[in-house]
Structure formats: C-alpha cells, structure tokens
Design goal:
mainly alpha, 3 helices, 34% helix, globular
Length: 80
Amino acid sequence: MFGEAAGGQADAPNIVILMTDGKSNNKTERAEVNKGELKAVASDVKYVFYSQDYNGLDYISKDLISVTCRTAGDLQAELQ
C-alpha cells in the first residue's frame, strides 16, 4: 500500500484514515463498533476518534487535521 510502486515516498509518513459506521454489511448480522479492534489497528490510541453521529464528524475532522497536517518530521519522530 505504501510501497514505491503505489506512489509511496521513503521520506513521507504512512497514514491511513479508517472510517466506519460500526455496522455490518451483512444484513443478517448487525455489529456495533468494536473499540478494541479500532485501538489495535491504530499505531496509538490517541489516534482513535469517535463520533455518535454525523454532526460530530466536524469535531473529529478538526482533530484529524491537527494530527495529520503536522510537518512530516514531527509526525515521523512521534511515531517512532
């Protein structure tokens, strides 16, 4: 996903933003958000954000911008 063949750059941090509504795509099965799984996927729990509804996404977007739009050096140092 982050390899050079896919356009990745060695000096750029690898960032994935995963958004889920916490609902299964299987109509016979309904699942709630598994917060433990989301925390396990994140490199750090401070990068996991929750919203109860679409209105809360505005607040999350501000946090995402704050976290992802730092200089690459700052973010890279923090993730190591």
